[in-house]
Design goal:
homotetramer; 247 residues; six-stranded parallel beta sheet; 8 helices
Amino acid sequence: MTEAGVIRVVFAGAQGRMGRALLPGLAAADDVTIVAEVEQGDDLERRARETRADVVVDFTEPASAVSNADALLAAGAHGVIGTTGFTEADLDRLDLAARKAGRGLIVAPNFALGMVLLQRFAEEAARYLPAVEIVETHHPDKLDAPSGTAYDTARRLARAGARAGRPGAEPARGLDVDGVRVHSLRLPGIAARQEVHFGGLGEALLLRHDAAGRDCYLPGVLAAIRAVSNRVGLVRGLEDVLFGERS
Amino acid sequence: MTEAGVIRVVFAGAQGRMGRALLPGLAAADDVTIVAEVEQGDDLERRARETRADVVVDFTEPASAVSNADALLAAGAHGVIGTTGFTEADLDRLDLAARKAGRGLIVAPNFALGMVLLQRFAEEAARYLPAVEIVETHHPDKLDAPSGTAYDTARRLARAGARAGRPGAEPARGLDVDGVRVHSLRLPGIAARQEVHFGGLGEALLLRHDAAGRDCYLPGVLAAIRAVSNRVGLVRGLEDVLFGERS
Amino acid sequence: MTEAGVIRVVFAGAQGRMGRALLPGLAAADDVTIVAEVEQGDDLERRARETRADVVVDFTEPASAVSNADALLAAGAHGVIGTTGFTEADLDRLDLAARKAGRGLIVAPNFALGMVLLQRFAEEAARYLPAVEIVETHHPDKLDAPSGTAYDTARRLARAGARAGRPGAEPARGLDVDGVRVHSLRLPGIAARQEVHFGGLGEALLLRHDAAGRDCYLPGVLAAIRAVSNRVGLVRGLEDVLFGERS
Amino acid sequence: MTEAGVIRVVFAGAQGRMGRALLPGLAAADDVTIVAEVEQGDDLERRARETRADVVVDFTEPASAVSNADALLAAGAHGVIGTTGFTEADLDRLDLAARKAGRGLIVAPNFALGMVLLQRFAEEAARYLPAVEIVETHHPDKLDAPSGTAYDTARRLARAGARAGRPGAEPARGLDVDGVRVHSLRLPGIAARQEVHFGGLGEALLLRHDAAGRDCYLPGVLAAIRAVSNRVGLVRGLEDVLFGERS
């Protein structure tokens, strides 16, 4: 029988970088028990059913994330999904599926508290200081450029009215994401950094986040695990979970 | 007779650094007319009466700011005050005086849009990442250390629950403002910079503001001049004026 | 008759941004006298002859810089040239012309002391930490991207053995200058900044230069004016002038 | 019998933070063999004799560093010492002892390549831009403030002619080391950072080093192990070892 108040978690992607970094911390939380670790190729739906999982945490590849979400909903679980690369159509379909199942799905590109704050502040600043560019730096092993999180920040800024300080098609001017320029550096010795540079009349504002290690994602993942069973449908990003809904 | 919709402004401290920097921009605004420039020694109350001032803007010395505020209220004007150094008792007294007079007084240590945003974000971040320290850099001619604005940021952070990452009485650990450490650099080539450094589990968040020139204060001063006649009593800081009251 | 020890200077481009910023400081130097200010369209050779110029300082456009250099050598003057955009062929031809004339020509993309130091340090660091990328930020009115100085830094780094931390053709990865990536931000509120980011095993080194105003170029231009008459042929950059020749 | 070309190393302080971080990398080097690991309380001289050590590496406490140095010299070994806190008198005595023994002693406060470069560049920049301040940030568990390395940088800057941009006894102005101000931040999420801020006429130069992990010290420690047997007497810092002697 399930111990009262303890959340039964299946972790998909346990052998990946995020899995190895997060599992010790999750296992140490009083109100969480890891009932199964699954990898790609395992039957996620069956494992979630057998273990009576409350929540499935998915840090696998984008390629498997949609079918994993279907599987966990079919097993009656809620989902916390940290993979990126969903299309808008994917997200709409997942929202519909979660609502039908009466379950919650939290999909977030980044679980670091400071990054969630940075994105929230960046959106607000863009209303008053619309000239903005993003510079992100990651280790050279990172395959994509820009990072999923920087791309997400750029789209949020663009929706809030931000634009590059100057247009221009020169290669040095970086990637144009809906009018916001993104620059990606790939260097050893820096784990993960994102800078949002705002410029105004005679002044400049910088927001910078540095993730030194993957332990910075643990508090956000734990908060999502604790919050998701009170949700129905898709929740995008960790902001509402951490800070409550904004009016 | 007063032209409809134009705000009649007396500027106290016109020959100071801020005065010389701000006056051309204020004079260029369609809805503002500078009806008098006064210096220390002038009779501010009489000049404000004679010129039928709507608003007195005060960028003089802390020593004269309280009596200037009394004088402008006595003349029936509203006040926008950019001097720093008021005690809590001063501010309480000014609030009472302004309420009795049925007039508004906006007192702000900093009118730069980006700095107002930085302080707002810093307060919010301190609730989630309480370990924080402040580093501010100004030109070597600045007489006080820390700057009035950095001191103000530190007190706001402390009220929001922030604390130094580590206590300690060593001189290198800077000034302790209610538990928040403040470090002041004085160097040529840098006009005015404030950094708020947050640290958390495996992550760091930086908020940095650079004021390159005094033209960055113009939009905030104009916004205060336009807003103050709709207020009664003391308004601390520019945040409400720029962003509206928070629930 | 020429006053002993005073250098007679003709300034070409006096009405440009650099000209207006530099001329008051040059005029204030005890050992320099501005004998003429010329603009494009004026006959530079004749003006230099008539005024018995020792040195012609040229801050005009790249389009006129080569013919101006020929003109000043023909007039028997030395040259200090702050325009950018010369080709290697141009520079070789100018060197030959200066040697024939027995005169010195100092050509530098940047006269700020701190930038000369940054480039010198960057070259040295690249030998030990070869993974490097450049980020430069300028005001939105700047027409070219990257800046001439950032381009120059990138080529020096490449010659010293530097390379990007990771290749890649994505637009966010910036401009590839001989293997070194350059990223250009264009934002109001920032005059001129260059950052060189080095990454190594578990460590990162940053060199950053900020030019707040054009007065930062004055000491370098004065040093070049004082040094150029002791040179024959072309001198590239201000490094030798400021720091002496390296063994 | 000793294998030709392999350096026999005794490591003192193997169970400390640096020891645990460095030993796997040292053991993996082809030309190094760890013949003993010793702790405080062990007889270092006897262990070094028994194992016929070529080099003793000491990352113990300052309190034991002087007697350890005597012990390793008595055993006929060379020394690489990474502890800090020696007085000038200590260093003079060690130099004398090493010369008598005909052995080399490399004493360095920091073995990170980028930090050695930063200190070298900082000294050179101070000759041209003498207004400078240091800001260092470490994790809250660090007991001393400022760090030994920041203190060392400050003394080098002072010897090169640097001074604070402005004097002043306010607590926010930090520690005065021979005229150079040092500010120490202690925050979680940042391993080890040192910034040297230079200011000049209209310009600013920043040198910043970040050590993300202790693996950054490995290349420098290996270089010192390889170089020390060619030295007689005390070598201060890693600069000569890495870059060769300066003229």
